[in-house]
Structures are given as C-alpha cells and as structure tokens.
Amino acid sequence: MAGYTDIIRRYATDDSRAGALPDAHGTGEVGLEAGEAGTRLAVRFAIRVEGGAVVDIRFQVFGCGFTVAACAALAELAEGHPLAEVDAIAPAWVDAVLGGLPEERAYCAELAAEALRGAVKSASGGDAVRSSVAAGAGDHAPRLSPSDPVYRQLMESPAPVGAAGEDRHLFACLIAVAAGEPSGLPAALGLEQEGVTAVMETYFPGADPDALFQHATPARGVPPETNGDVLAILLSHVPQDAQGRDLPASALLARILAARAAHPGHLWRAMGLFERPELSAAIARHLPTLAEANDRGMRWKRFLFKEACDLGGGTMCKSPDCGACSDYALCFAPD
After folding, report:
1. In whole numbers, what is the pLDDT of the chain averaged over residues?
2. Hey, how many other C-beta atoms are within 10 angstroms of the C-beta on 121?
C-alpha cells in the first residue's frame, strides 16, 4: 500500500477508540462533499466530558486507511485533555504523530481535526455539529490569483523607491490571503497592528486602506495558535544590521511564517503565494541562515516542526539516515 509507513499502518489498525459512543456529550461530523454531511459520513467524533476535559472519545470513519490513522492519532492526542486544548489541536500535529502523511493525503488530518472541533463545539452547545469538506479539492492549487482585488490594488499602487518587486509580491500575497480570514488581518499574520502598518508603509505607502479592505472579512475569531518553538527558531535566524538591530522586513516575515505554519496544508498556499518556489526564494532573501540550515531541501513546514521537535528533545523521525528512510519522499520535496 503506497504511502503506508509502519507508523501510519499501526494507527490505521488501532481500533481502541473506534466505534460509537453512547450518551456522548458532543458529536461532530464532516462530510466529503457539499450536502453530504450527516448523510454520507466521512468522519464522526463523539466525546464524553467531565470536569471540562475529554474523558472518553470515539471515532467512526467512512474513508481510507489514512483517514482512520489520522482519527486514531487525533483521538490519542485529545483524550484526557481540557476542551480548550483539544479544540486547538492542529492538523500539523496529527501529521507529526503519524510521521508525515503523503502529500496527497494531507486533507485526512484536516477532516479529522474539523470533525473533532465540531464535537467540542457540540459538547458546549448540546447539538451535533455537521459540516462539509471537499476532500483534497484545490490542495495543490494557489489560494490567490493576480485578479484578487486586494492583491491587485496593492500591486497597482505606486512602488516606493528601494522596494523590491519580489517583496511587494510576497507581502501583497500575505495581506490578501489574510484579509479573507475571520481572525482579522493582524492576527492572521501573527503581527500587532504596528507590524501591519510597517509592511504597508514599506511596500505599499500609496495604497488606500479604506478602498483596499472594504471587502475584508470582519474579525470574529482567532487564528490557529502559533507554535512558540517554531517562532523562536525563525526569530533566531533574523539577520541584523551593523548596529546589531534586526532587519525589519526579515523580523516581520519570521513572525508571519510562524503564524501561517500553524494553518493546515502547504505553507506556500497558507501564505497566498502563487507557486511553491516563491517560499524558498523569500526565505533565502530574508532568512539566509535558515535557508542554509535546510541544506537538504526538506519541505519547509516539516523542517520547522522537526527543528521544534528536536529543540524539545523529541523526534519526528524513525531513521538516523534520511537517505535510507522510507519516508524520504514525504520530507524532501518542494513546499
């Protein structure tokens, strides 16, 4: 079975938390296509809660072995933890437990996480939560195009002297993708408002904010939690000027990278970039020592979380020799 590593196979055959859960306090379901949620089940999580923590959890899956493995790993992560912590579990952590899902199966962890978040919401509100996710749809396509109104207005604004075109494109993509998210622009980018203002003044001083963000999504939620270790690693690679001060654009990008790495899917897509190579190019320009550290070309999100895991004394790898590891293709590919 292509892509089934020993770890994934072990979780895919672990039925210790599979099945129905009578008298559940919360139930969440995710369907595969629009209109199928609650009828053609893809993933269902059911939980029992005591003292604000998940004391029992069960999942049911209509799907492939990768989805079963993702649900089993997620159930293991969730059991015994407070609802707030369970609600914050990101697909990236499920992927880490599994040692890396194949690229085309990354959506399996997203399905599982969405269903469990529904169960947490249900436990708080009392009704089953059903939603719909198109499995894998657009996972490899860019989230933005040059016709995006925010991106277009930014790039059509007068370019200030000294602002490189590739950096205007980079930050225009980031602002445009974040403007469409419910957490609000600063939070979606992992910045304070001062940071967003600095980006605008540096690269788009002629843009009209009122016209630019008239269709932006109003802030009404919180973004995925940024991993503190990933942020620390990125900030440690920010270059400094002759006076020992962090280069502003590099420091801003480091914070943005950490925030966007918390989102599911490919990092280049979470950043709103048009193509995969743009991510590596941006890191090489602004965080050159980080680019040098990833000297074997590991996917950027996987590299960052591996570094964070190593920093904490853990391991995401089953082999000390990357070249001999059966997961090589999962780790070493453009991202």
Report:
1. 83
2. 18
Task: Among 108, 133, 158, give the residue marking a domain's end.
Answer: 133
Q: Amino acid identity, residue 169?
A: H
Alpha-carbon distance of 265 to 42, in angstroms, equals 19
Amino acid 219 reads A
> What CATH number is given to the structural domain containing 103?
3.90.1010.10
The verdict on 196 and 239 lying in the same domain is: yes
Verify that 41 and 182 share a domain, yes or no: no
Crossing angle of helices 193-203 and 248-261, in 10° steps, is 120
* Residue corresponding to tokens 């009828």: 39
**Model's pTM, two decimal places?**
0.59
Tokens describing residue 88: 């914050």
- Tell me which DSSP letter residue 296 carries: T
CB 232 within 8 A of CB 162: no
Question: At how many degrees (to 10) do helices 165-179 and 248-261 cross?
Answer: 40
Q: Domain limits at 249?
A: 149-323
Nearest to 101 by CA among 127, 141, 67, 129: 67
Number of domains in the chain: 2
Q: What is the pLDDT of residue 222?
A: 79
